[in-house]
Write a structure and sequence with these properties.
With 209 residues, the chain is α+β, with helices and mostly antiparallel strands. Helix content is 34%, strand content 26%. The chain contains 7 helices and 9 strands, in the order βαβααβββααββαββα. It has a 9-stranded antiparallel beta sheet with strand order 2-3-4-5-1-6-7-9-8, sandwiched between helices. A hairpin with a 6-residue loop joins strand 3 and strand 4. The longest helix has 15 residues.
């Protein structure tokens, strides 16, 4: 199955400072799965990507600076890196000041190998969510979402993609309802990760929101 991991928080600093936290996150997730071990810069072709050396922190931060320059705006996004097998790996994207000023966000479009591991092991999914939430200490929302499941036509009350596992900050207006609907709750950072049923049933549970 295709999965996406996403998380949004109020930035503690400028985009480059947040990029340093993204680099810390890359180091922390590397041991979680073989496909997360080697990270390379996004390239214009598979051949170029294959020949690229591993991405460095300096390269990552430079990509963020360049994206901000290219967009000519405080609101911008960048896809600086990927991990795992070319054309089948995990693609990282970052956004800043979107949708709101002061927001920062990370999305990992999960490839085949890591996706199969998530399908096979809930522990793998928990480790990925916990590591991501504890690194960024978010104060907004995050989710681990199956891409092949239909999204509710109307935006959900929490204004985010529904997920099998979701993070809500403890002071979120949605925290109490998440607690009521969740099948398991795991405290982390300044909130909790809520699990809603199974990868197949979570949309039905969240539709009760």
């Amino acid at each position: 199955m295709r999965w996406d991991l996403s998380l949004r928080w109020r930035a503690l600093g400028d985009p480059v400072s947040e990029g340093r936290r993204v680099w810390e996150w890359i180091q922390r997730v590397r041991p979680l799965h073989p496909s997360l071990d080697l990270w390379r810069p996004t390239a214009d072709s598979p051949q170029e990507a294959e020949q690229s050396p591993p991405i460095t922190q300096d390269h990552l931060l430079q990509d963020i600076r360049q994206a901000q320059t290219d967009w000519e705006s405080e609101r911008f996004g960048v896809a600086p890196a990927f991990s795992g097998q070319i054309n089948q790996g995990n693609k990282l994207t970052l956004s800043f000041n979107m949708p709101n000023p002061g927001d920062a966000a990370i999305t990992l479009m999960i490839g085949q190998a890591l996706g199969a591991a998530l399908d096979a092991s809930e522990g793998q999914a928990d480790a990925l969510m916990h590591t991501t939430a504890s690194t960024f200490a978010p104060d907004i929302v995050g989710s681990l979402t199956r891409e092949d499941l239909p999204v509710t036509p109307a935006p959900p009350p929490y204004q985010y993609l529904p997920g099998w596992k979701m993070f809500f900050a403890a002071d979120s207006p949605h925290y109490q309802r998440a607690t009521q609907l969740a099948t398991t709750t795991a405290p982390v950072a300044n909130g909790a990760i809520f699990t809603f049923g199974t990868p197949d049933t979570y949309p039905t549970i969240l539709n009760q929101w």
